[in-house]
Design goal:
The structure is a single chain. Helices cover 36% and strands 16% of the residues. It is built from ten helices and 14 strands. It has a seven-stranded mixed sheet. α4 links the parallel β3 and β4. α2 packs across α6. The protein is globular. The structure holds pyridoxal-5'-phosphate. The site of pyridoxal-5'-phosphate has 12 residues, from α3.
């Protein structure tokens, strides 16, 4: 067996201890004589798994009792529709467009009401976050929507926008559980788990209970009503049982690591190693303005497409994989999620140094 350093943006690296636990539990989960994949979601054993997962998540994030936690399917992309279907009472919401995901969420919401773009960083290829201190948010907007960490472009909010009293809705898919969060500042926050939490197939929605509508237009599908899932404890229909179990193991692992404060420290340390190198490199350049840099996704370029390609190829051969940038940015992107060890970032930077020395001439000509 040989494990690589996996810098994929998602599905992404998971803690080795969790994978080993999955392997150990695979054929016989805690004496049940079966795998979690094989058991009824209505049985006692599974009930304990999903309840414990929810409680551990509540402990980690400090989720108050007046917030519901839902384990849903359909990916973050389904939330792009589910949120406006459930929250657009006035048929209007404000969007801060800072990348592809916010743009897609905005486009989807516009099918259900007016999606007003109140700020955007599209003018500079989403390489920064707009000033969000005094936005022209319509009075009657039902909520303000952000994508808190922009997986593709590598920006991350350090302070939340001034919503002027409106409900804040945030996509936290790619910085979920990467640092402490004050849940009470949000009406709804959600994320697909495949970036920083678990295996693809689960979307976690954390939502103020009083925002869950009792009544919705007849044609809103049962499965797309938050009430359906909140009332049923995420067991209205068959949930992605095994995936939720793995998320639960990750929550326990995070608790063992010291929780989200410890994770934030670990993630800051790791990102600093890479950003410090980028800031002094003659060959590699980060693509994001310093103050908005993400701790999770770090895009960088050499300025020469052929050299970028060569770098990705040689890095892969050296066991540093999935460094190719998103097709809309090009270059490289290193995702440094919770489960990426510090050694992985050190190995990446050492490899970048070596590559830079070997290509000093290309750097001068770039
Ligand atoms: C990956 C990603 C999505 C899309 O997630 P799916 O689960 O594939 O629908 C949405 N938002 C952000 C921030 C992402 O990183």
């Amino acid at each position: 067996m040989s494990r690589v350093y996996n810098f994929s943006a998602g599905p992404a690296v998971l803690p080795e201890a969790v994978l080993k636990q999955c392997a150990a539990d695979m054929l016989d989960y805690k004496g049940s004589g079966m795998s979690v994949m094989e058991m009824s979601h209505r049985g006692k054993v599974y009930d304990a798994i999903i309840k414990e997962a929810e409680q551990d998540l509540r402990d980690l994030m400090g989720i108050p009792d007046d917030y519901a936690v839902m384990f849903l399917q359909g990916g973050a992309s389904t939330q792009f529709a589910m949120i406006p279907m459930n929250l657009m009472k006035n048929h209007k919401a404000a969007f801060i467009v800072t990348g592809q995901w916010a743009k897609k969420a905005c486009a989807e919401a516009s099918k259900y009401g007016e999606a007003v773009v109140v700020a955007s960083s599209a003018d500079k290829t989403f390489s920064y976050l707009p000033d969000c201190t005094d936005l022209p948010i319509p009075e009657d907007a039902d909520y303000v929507y952000i994508c808190e960490n922009n997986t593709i472009y590598g920006t991350e909010y350090k302070t939340l926008p001034n919503t002027k009293g409106h409900i804040l809705v945030a996509d936290i898919s790619s910085n979920f559980l990467s640092r402490p969060v004050d849940v009470t500042k949000y009406g709804l926050l959600y994320g697909g788990v495949q970036k920083n939490v678990g295996p693809a197939g689960v979307t976690i929605v954390i939502m103020r209970k009083d925002l869950i509508p009792d009544e919705l237009p007849e044609q809103v599908p049962t499965m797309l009503r938050y009430k359906t899932h909140a009332d049923a404890g995420s067991l209205y229909n068959t949930p992605p049982c095994w995936n939720i179990y793995v998320c639960g193991l990750v929550f326990k692992w995070l608790k063992e690591q010291g929780g989200l404060e410890a994770m934030a420290k670990h993630n800051e340390e790791k990102a600093k190693i890479l950003y410090d190198f980028l800031d002094q490199s003659k060959l590699f350049k980060g693509t994001v303005v310093k103050e908005d840099r993400s701790l999770m996704n770090v895009p960088f370029v050499t300025g020469n497409e052929d050299l970028d390609k060569l770098f990705v190829k040689e890095a892969e051969a050296a066991g540093l994989v999935s460094l190719k940038g998103h097709r809309s940015v090009g270059g490289m992107r290193a995702s440094l999620y919770n489960a990426m060890p510090k050694e992985g970032v050190e190995a990446l930077v050492a490899f970048m140094k070596k590559f830079e020395e070997e290509h000093a001439e290309d750097a001068n000509n770039a």
